[in-house]
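Reviewer 2 asked us to include a model.

Predict the structure of this chain.
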Amino acid sequence: MTRPITAGVDGTEESLAALDWAAREAVRRRLPLRVVHAWRYAEALAAADRDTQHGWVTDGVDQAVRTVSERHPELEVGVDVVEGDAPHALATAAAGAEMLVLGSRGHGPVVGFLLGSVGQQVIAGADRPVVLVRAGDLAAAEAAGREVVVGQHGSPEDSAAALRFAFETAAARGASVRAVRAWTLPPVFAYSPGSLKLLDDAGGLEPYERQALAEALKPWRERFPDVPVAEHIEMGSAGQVLLSVSGRAQLMVVGRRAHRTAVGARIGSVAHGVLHHADCPVAVVPHD
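Predicted model (structure tokens):
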């Protein structure tokens, strides 16, 4: 079954930027585009009944779709206007999509994302990649020379989903991948004797981390031999190291393992930090 690229729209400038980003990506990947809008009947608008309000919503979505179709006449576009809770509607739409693309406001004076409750709920609950796009994101930012940056950590299996997404995206764009692995000095006695032997065999901490990154990248280099890859090893926190190279990125890809707490789902500190401060679109990819 062919999965569409799905864009959530709500009429804001941010969501229209997300729709345009999703349309460009759908054309590159030769996939259909699905446009989803969730709405609720507003009883406060006593002069407008449910059908009238639905008509207003549909007209706005149709106008956005017409604009995209004029820019990309070859693109197959479907529309779903759903009455109900936005996080639930978007998470449901994401389940059947190649990815879900959402708009997000800039984070105050700092370039980045202001991640509201809807965005956080959708990212934490979605089983598919979710891409956040700011208003003002332009196709020019995808120009040659800008990389798809992806964070790698842990074992090859831990970051396989994020690496797959990054390589697929780079292949579709004719772009390169910069794979980033951050490392820090371990606390005293943190490693077992077996772990210390592995470090000794590798020649120390940094060579060990470099070897771990190379092993994680190996299957993806083989699967995508035409995608240039830069291996980036740097000491520091993962979020800080990723943000230090975001200026050269046309897309930042991070993995996500949602954490359930008493106050709701959390998406992890690395994904949260990158979403709030990266100056490019960010894809958050759930672990397989």
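The longest strand covers residues 99-107. The chain has two domains: 5-137, 144-286. We have added this to the supplementary material.
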